[in-house]
Automatic annotation (TrEMBL):
<feature type="binding site">
    <location>
        <position position="112"/>
    </location>
    <ligand>
        <name>FAD</name>
    </ligand>
</feature>
<dbReference type="InterPro" id="IPR002938">
    <property type="entry name" value="FAD-bd"/>
</dbReference>
<comment type="function">
    <text>An FAD-requiring monooxygenase active on some tetracycline antibiotic derivatives, which leads to their inactivation. Hydroxylates carbon 11a of tetracycline and some analogs.</text>
</comment>
<dbReference type="InterPro" id="IPR043683">
    <property type="entry name" value="TetX_monooxygenase"/>
</dbReference>
<keyword id="KW-0560">Oxidoreductase</keyword>
<feature type="domain" description="FAD-binding">
    <location>
        <begin position="12"/>
        <end position="195"/>
    </location>
</feature>
<comment type="subunit">
    <text>Monomer.</text>
</comment>
<keyword id="KW-0963">Cytoplasm</keyword>
<dbReference type="Pfam" id="PF01494">
    <property type="entry name" value="FAD_binding_3"/>
</dbReference>
<protein>
    <recommendedName>
        <fullName>Flavin-dependent monooxygenase</fullName>
        <ecNumber>1.14.13.-</ecNumber>
    </recommendedName>
</protein>
<dbReference type="InterPro" id="IPR036188">
    <property type="entry name" value="FAD/NAD-bd_sf"/>
</dbReference>
<keyword id="KW-0285">Flavoprotein</keyword>
<dbReference type="GO" id="GO:0043731">
    <property type="term" value="F:6-hydroxynicotinate 3-monooxygenase activity"/>
</dbReference>
<keyword id="KW-0503">Monooxygenase</keyword>
<feature type="binding site">
    <location>
        <position position="306"/>
    </location>
    <ligand>
        <name>FAD</name>
    </ligand>
</feature>
<feature type="domain" description="FAD-binding">
    <location>
        <begin position="303"/>
        <end position="335"/>
    </location>
</feature>
<keyword id="KW-0547">Nucleotide-binding</keyword>
């Protein structure tokens, strides 16, 4: 089947139904501008892809306001999720930030699935097509793009927006840059129903995030809204390690036994993150695009979110930037009418703010896996708190990841 372009309105195709693509479609919809989201998965899988996210007042929340979802978001957001604890492998506590009971912080948490549900419920269901994996986008002589999907579907778009994440199929239309391995591999575990099943670990973890750092390894844990603690065991290692380490990811008990070996000299209380974990043992390599990536503007195509500026999760900005990009692009389209003027204006703005976050994320990655990382991270925050004039600009440890 081929869709025909409506001559009254530019045909906008958004590739990818993650937080970025959904936010863009929704803000356009609110302004009466049609678009269509093509998502490769057969149905919404955002719930399975990631844990708790902090949504920042100066980025993600701006986008939610434009999408008409700020109040529904604030009604379910977890302000206590801003708690942050920093330890080293001996269990020594370096930072213990606790969100104030009577104050609403500027970066509350929400689970990725819940965030995407909010967006999806507000989006006209006809605006998203599942099971449509983009395989190719070919430029036509009139400046439009022909889009081809694995299921045989084709479409012709005046503007194709790559919101298709780390390994974007749209990105090669604009730049030769590729996502490169960032030098860090994660193994994801989940401790289900932590408060009831493992009160000792729940008490150690508190209500937000806990980082335990030492010698190129880390335990990064975050309490999710559904009561589970999502745990990333992080290793500074070569790209092939997850394939060659011999850990049987499909045999959780044996995998956990071997993982405990990597944390042998860590405090017992921290090893409980591995001991208490359930049967999900997921290997994940962390990738990034070059810091400060830009491309010369080309009519008919642009990128938002990870497709544009994939960075390691250590600035906690990924989802916030994806949503801010969506808002900036949508509002530029509303303002300029001409989609190419709009994308040029959006890209200029986006390049500036995303390069700052990418640099911060790359710097934080170095720090987290350095020698004496816990001490160095504490010093960084002490310095930061001393020199940040406005409490609104104040970042907390909980913003990392
Ligand atoms: C372990 C980990 C922890 C993280 N923690 C945080 C955090 O705490 N805070 C934070 O802000 N960010 C975090 N991030 C980053 C955050 O998840 C991403 O930045 C964010 O999801 C980007 O949104 P997006 O919409 O650009 O892309 P994605 O969420 O990647 O969505 C892309 C969508 O495109 C679809 N797609 C891909 N290819 C195609 C194709 N060819 N055709 C059609 N559809 C396609 C995918 O199925 C997906 O639905 C973390 C990332 C990781 C890996």
């Amino acid at each position: 089947m081929t869709f025909v372009s409506d001559k009254q309105q530019p045909r906008i195709a958004i590739i990818g139904g993650g937080p970025g693509g959904l936010t863009l479609a929704l803000i356009l919809q609110r302004h009466g501008i049609p678009s269509i989201v093509y998502e490769r998965e057969a149905n919404d899988t955002n719930r399975e892809r990631g844990g708790s996210l902090d949504i920042h007042e100066d980025s993600g929340q701006i986008a939610l306001r434009e999408a008409g979802l700020l109040d529904p978001f604030l009604a379910v957001a977890r302000f206590e999720g801003e708690d942050f604890r920093l330890l080293d492998k001996s269990g020594t506590l370096y930072m213990d930030e606790r969100a104030e009971e009577d104050e609403q912080g500027s970066r509350p948490e929400i689970d990725r699935g819940e965030l995407c549900d909010l967006l999806l419920h507000a989006l006209d269901p006809g605006r998203i097509r599942y099971g449509c994996k983009l395989t190719d986008a070919a430029p036509l002589t009139d400046g439009r793009y022909e889009l081809r999907f694995e299921n045989g579907l084709t479409d012709v778009a005046d503007l194709v927006v790559g919101a298709d994440g780390a390994f974007s199929r749209v990105r090669p239309l604009l730049t030769e840059a590729k996502a490169e391995y960032a030098g860090i591999s994660f193994i994801e575990l989940n401790v289900e129903n932590a408060a009831a099943a493992h009160p000792d670990l729940a008490a150690l973890n508190a209500r937000g995030k806990l980082f335990a750092l030492s010698g190129g390894q880390a335990i990064l844990a975050q309490l999710n809204g559904d009561g589970r603690i999502k745990v990333y065991l992080a290793f500074k290692t070569d790209r092939g390690w997850l394939d060659t380490c011999g850990i049987p990811f499909d045999r959780p008990e044996e995998a956990k036994r071997q993982l405990l070996g990597y944390f042998e000299d860590w405090d017992d209380s921290l090893k409980n993150y591995i001991r208490y974990a359930g049967s999900t043992v997921l290997p994940r390599r962390i990738y990034m695009l070059p810091v400060g990536l830009q491309w010369p503007h080309k009519p008919g195509a642009t990128l938002i979110g990870d497709a544009a500026h994939l960075m390691s999760p250590f600035a906690g900005e990924g989802v916030n930037l994806a949503m801010l990009d969506a808002a900036e692009l949508a509002l530029a389209i509303v303002e300029h009418k001409d989609v190419n003027l709009a994308t040029a204006a959006y890209e200029a703005k986006m390049f500036a703010y995303s390069s700052r976050s990418a640099k911060e994320s790359a710097d934080n990655l170095e720090l987290i896996f350095a020698d004496n990382a816990a001490q160095k991270l504490k010093e960084l925050f002490d310095h930061y708190y001393e020199h940040t004039a406005s409490s609104e600009d104040l970042q907390t440890g909980a913003d990392m990841l």
